[in-house]
Write a structure and sequence with these properties.
6-stranded parallel beta sheet; homodimer; 434 Repressor (Amino-terminal Domain); Rossmann fold; 6-stranded mixed beta sheet; 45% helix; DNA-binding; alpha/beta; 12 strands
DNA sequence: GAGTTCCATGCAACCGGTTGCATGTCAAGT
DNA sequence: ACTTGACATGCAACCGGTTGCATGGAACTC
């Protein structure tokens, strides 16, 4: 049967090597302070005993535990896994571990997670936070914070500017002759949603296009599907959805209602997370989630290093990826 | 500008409340040992100072830090997010936090992550581990471990028995008149892959069906797509793919080669992660990933509670979900 | 009213490291 | 030969809690 080995401590290593505990500590953290022979002797003893430094103890005395937290609203949304993956990779490069939190789009849960993480992490990345500005500011007062897709003065943030891509989407639709389009909006407390809606309205009004907004409440397949009746009721000939998931739901809803895409109706998604794998392949606005994850963590680690908070605002541009769900208006 | 608040310690609270440090500690951990008045006095003082117990210090003296690790091979594979989400929810119920690790299907990375996590977590869940049995056994000697989709004697494990569903899939194809089918296999070090291949062969031989195996190497869209030539070369009329992602790739590859599904070729996936959203909707073997995540964490927390390792083998049955990618053989 | 119990609280050691300062040694400087 | 300094190492306090044991007073017993 399997039995557990108990921890070897620094004292045991010190005894075995015939030195003081402090020397063992230094052998691991600042070997340059010791003579090379002492270091090797200590290392040999440590190896023989199977010594592994105790992370917790080290964290207690240094105040640094080498963890950062990452909180996302919905891990199952394909926008996030690449972001998480990139964040983890970047953290790894500096020997940091990632605590992952999933809030299920619920600000209460988010607050709770932040509280639980604080004290175990040196800093936090909040991706697409659903918290109010005040709560975020409050948290930022407790520990280093970097935001993704949330634009608050004084707090370092990485923004995926879907505005640029959305503008191209509207221009694309205009060129195809669409004069009346729908924006299928996402979560009301989402910064990206606000940004996209604003960008669409601005672009449309410049091109003489009418935009109606149909709410989808959540960013999900089902809310997209449920929004279809309302979308068709507007008399529009094309729609831009808050994200690809919503668009996919709209696609399904349209197909159920025998409205074929793109011949009867044009559809554009956002985030380009499944563009190539829907049928027809979805025209979408590119995302930069991988970069966002990487940059956010790298920014955070910088802050931890320098102990300074710079007011960084890192913007990532996007563009339209045209596939098969858009065509000329009838 | 934002400034950080420094930590309030137990001593400050003790001074403010006019008691010993130990009393403050007990007020938070074992209030029944103190008189109610003392507890309220301490709590009031703590509140006033904004005291929050230091997680690290507590962990050091108790040896319990309330974290468990979860390691998966690929976050971006849609099989895992629901599992992760469920694991997190379950951990949350007991006030545990989840450390997430992503190995990118790389055993080296997995080993490294386990090492880095050990010492910060009380236990570990390895989902679809790509490590060798020996490595897993070695890790299990260091800390409590629960496996998902990996069957090793003596180590608690949660198994999604796709065998039952795969058997149904083969029977389904047999009933439709297919006599020659392909199994598009997944990662060679995947337990699920082995299980599925075995189940298919067993079921097929009982029904007088010929099975050819075509390797897809990784569980991904692209490997599925690349496998299509080899699949068609076998002359089979139907295929079962290692997972839905692979199936989706196969679907795309077939469509590029003008082989239409299901009229020319029948296809079945596994894990049912995107069945309803492909076109045509994919027939697939159901998954139980949410339950697997939940059960694994709950098992792990049990182990931590009781300090005992029981040889648990928790099996979750699956079944075939018929949609639109299968039809009678020509 | 003295002896016994019980309860609330304090004392101090401990968890396993880190680190400022003191000490001792040896070589270089004059 | 004596001072000076650099360097390697040890000592002990500290990080912020937890916990076994001791203590003192109140309540209870006879």
């Amino acid at each position: 049967m399997i039995k557990r080995t108990k921890g070897v401590t620094i004292s045991q290593v010190a005894d075995a090597a015939g030195v003081a505990r402090s020397s063992v500590s230094r052998a691991f953290t600042r070997p340059d302070m010791l003579s090379p022979e002492t270091v090797t002797r200590i290392m040999k003893a440590a190896e023989a005993l199977g010594y592994v430094p105790n992370h917790t103890a080290r964290a207690l005395s240094t105040g640094r535990h080498g963890n950062v937290g990452l909180i996302v609203p919905d891990i199952a949304n394909p926008f996030f896994p690449p972001l998480i993956q990139a964040a983890q990779l970047e953290a790894d490069r500096s020997d940091f571990c990632i605590f992952l939190g999933n809030t299920e789009e619920n600000p209460k849960q988010e607050d709770k997670l932040v509280g639980r993480f604080a004290g175990q992490v040196e800093g936090l990345v909040l991706a697409s936070s659903r918290l109010s500005d005040e709560r975020i500011r409050a948290h930022a007062g407790q520990l280093p914070l970097v935001l993704i897709n949330r634009d608050i003065d004084g707090i370092p943030r990485v923004l995926i500017d879907s505005g640029s891509g959305v503008r191209q989407a509207v221009e694309h639709l205009a060129k195809l002759g669409h004069r009346r389009i729908v924006y299928v909006s996402g979560p009301s407390n989402s910064w990206s949603n606000k940004q996209r809606r604003t960008a669409i309205k601005a672009a449309a009004s410049g091109l003489g296009i009418v935009v109606e907004t149909v709410p989808a409440v959540l960013a999900s397949y089902n809310s997209g599907r449920n929004a279809v009746s309302a979308i068709l009721a507007t008399g529009a000939t094309a729609a831009v959805a808050f994200d690809d998931l919503t668009a996919q739901g709209v696609l399904a809803g349209l197909s159920e209602k025998r409205v074929s895409v793109p011949s009867d109706f044009s559809l554009i998604g956002c985030d380009d997370v499944l563009g190539a794998v829907t049928y027809p392949a979805l025209t979408s606005v590119s995302n930069r989630s991988t970069e966002a994850g990487r940059v956010a963590v790298s920014l955070l680690l910088d802050m931890l290093q320098s102990r300074a908070i710079r007011d960084v605002r890192y913007v990532l541009e996007t563009h339209l990826v045209v596939r098969n769900t858009t065509t000329a208006a009838r």
